[in-house]
Amino acid sequence: MKVYIETYGCQMNVNDSEVVLSILQQAGYTRCQRMEEADLILINTCSVRDNAEQRVLGRLDVFRQEKKRRKGVIVGILGCMAERLKEKLLENAAVDIVAGPDAYRDLPRLAAAVAVDGKQINTLLSHEETYADIAPVRMDREGVTAFISIMRGCNNVCSYCIVPFVRGAERSRDPQSILREAQTLIAEGYKEINLLGQNVDSYRWRDPEDPARCVDFASLLEQVARLDAGIRIRFATSHPKDMGDSVLHVMARYPNICRHIHLPVQSGSDTMLEKMNRKYTRAHYLERIAHIREILPDCAVTTDVIAGFSGETDEDHALTMSLFREVRYDSAFMFQYSERPGTRASRHYPDDVPAAVKTARLNEIIALQNEISLESNQRCVGRRYEVLIEGPSKRDAAELMGRTSQNKTCVFPAEGHKAGEYVTVEVLSCTSATLRCKIA
Ligand code: SAH
Ligand code: SF4
Ligand code: F3S
CATH number of the domain at 384-439, out of 2.40.50.140, 1.10.600.10, 1.20.120.140, 3.30.450.20? Predict the structure, then answer.
């Protein structure tokens, strides 16, 4: 039997799809790359903004056509949207299985039960599940960079955010299982490991035999970095309220921990931050940035921001703009506020910024950040960087693509090099998104 899987949403979802493939492989499925060949079509979904859900609903229409064309094909919806909408999704003619993020071990049973009993659902959330014992089937093509989820769920209640509702309570994974997985990846030839969690700074493992023994994120990061100096380590996401200096000092000691911190700010206005329940102020955030710059002078900083949250005034927006000018991010993910049903914001704070105003503010932030990203990249021109080659460039197969430690994308003529190699490049020119280089 063949399974086809499509993945939407964040890196954690990509890693979850790898876990799903592993579970199904053990149950006798093989993976296929084309929906037309599959007995089981899966879609791993995201609920973070309404447009993410709309895209998935569009795909379900396509799967429904496929089911009409080939009798017996089973379609399963997985992930955050499955968890949020539960039974409601069973009303969709395309859907046979609804499985939430903690129900993936049950997928072989659910798939087998469809033929006998019809539509199946499992959206139970767990306090323990971390899939620690499952070896993900890696989906990246070149075998260079891989994800390891070090925790699941989220215990923060940012008022706009659906994630805690669809991913459940935060739980950290046994560090020994993380180190074992990293070692396996290294043995398989991987060169870069990405440690993932919604808030890595709250990673905490207590030894069940000796609760006084506790591993926090700084010490986990150090243990992973020590496995092999030739392997790059990245991590995301850091939370401004929890990211202490100990993580920065560990980074400073290990050159193989990449010089990049993704530190979502969400807004530059204290009024908005309070209403968002982010639990830090603009001043605290800027103090964290100052510590990064002091301890890690060559570290890139990137962020996420939301334009047009409930009650956001022109003054609040101006504060986000001024924060962007002050921090000078290397790049940013920028979003319009999208109200999510069931969140604290949806219950207490009206979605009252007109759509046109949200869009105008978002466009202003994007225009500003594009200028700043370009300046940040222009500072790289003429310099040399060590780059890990990830594979052919998307635009031109004769060129290669790789990243600097600061997570800047470089493209350069291959000159006989290949994915998985470290090369030193010289930056010749740039856009706001890419460094154009040659092998130095
Ligand atoms: N755990 C991470 C973020 C996960 S969601 C953190 O705490 O920073 C990724 C990003 O989506 C968030 O940083 C936020 O900028 C954005 N986002 C989340 N909910 C949103 C919503 N309702 N509308 C618009 N953007 C949202
Ligand atoms: Fe959402 Fe906040 Fe948790 Fe991030 S920390 S996933 S924004 S609730
Ligand atoms: Fe990720 Fe989207 Fe779920 S961002 S955790 S896939 S809601």
Answer: 2.40.50.140
